[in-house]
């Protein structure tokens, strides 16, 4: 009997290698599927956090407008917003809309690409600005509300 014609031990070794290959494919599939789920959860988390931050800031700017509604008033209102959303930084933009007295906050994060828009009403003019997320100060001076970086 020659070594080439001897096939007695090949079925055990072949079965072992095939079992390892199938297990590796299954584990890889689970990792890929789990990674997509984690990305979706992070997007949803960022969206929810930005919505809460946007609503909070819109309400504070509206409240500041009611508090400072006199020609000689001065106001500085600190609002403690988180510096990070879903593990990354975010940007706050304050813009005007075509409607009188209606303004818009645009919050976006580059980590997940999520953008949230929140409209709010103010009796006073609000200066257009763009700043990094984190603690802010709402300032009323010389007839205009402005959202500024607190640091």
Instruction: Spell the H/E element sequence.
Output: HEEEEEEE
Distance between the termini: 86 Å
Helix content: 25-40%
Class by SSE composition: alpha+beta
How many helices? The count is 1
Main pleated sheet? 4 strands, antiparallel
Tell me the quaternary state.
single chain
Descriptive notes:
This protein is of the alpha+beta class and 151 residues long. 38% of the residues lie in helices and 28% in strands. It has one helix at residues 10-67, and strands at residues 75-79, 90-96, 102-109, 115-121, 129-132, 136-141, 144-149. The strands form two sheets. Strands 4-3-2-5 form a four-stranded antiparallel sheet, with helices on one face. A three-stranded antiparallel sheet has the order 1-6-7, covered by helices on one side. β6 (136-141) and β7 form a beta hairpin. It is rod-shaped and about 105 Å long. The termini are far apart.
Topology overview:
Blueprint (H helix, E strand, L loop, with lengths): L9 H58 L7 E5 L10 E7 L5 E8 L5 E7 L7 E4 L3 E6 L2 E6 L2
Antiparallel strand pairs: 1-6, 2-3, 2-5, 3-4, 6-7
């Amino acid at each position: 009997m020659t070594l080439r014609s001897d096939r007695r031990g090949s079925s055990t070794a072949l079965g072992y290698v095939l079992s390892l290959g199938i297990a590796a494919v299954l584990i890889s599939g689970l990792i890929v599927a789990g990674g997509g789920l984690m990305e979706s959860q992070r997007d949803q988390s960022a969206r929810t956090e930005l919505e809460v931050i946007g609503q909070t800031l819109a309400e504070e700017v509206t409240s500041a407008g009611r508090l400072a509604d006199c020609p000689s008033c001065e106001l500085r209102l600190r609002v403690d917003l988180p510096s990070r959303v879903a593990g990354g930084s975010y940007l706050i933009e304050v813009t005007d809309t075509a409607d009188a007295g209606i303004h818009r906050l645009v919050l976006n994060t580059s980590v997940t690409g999520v953008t949230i828009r929140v409209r709010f009403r103010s009796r006073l003019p609000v200066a257009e600005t763009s700043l990094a997320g984190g603690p802010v100060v709402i300032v009323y001076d010389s007839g205009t509300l402005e959202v500024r970086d607190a640091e």
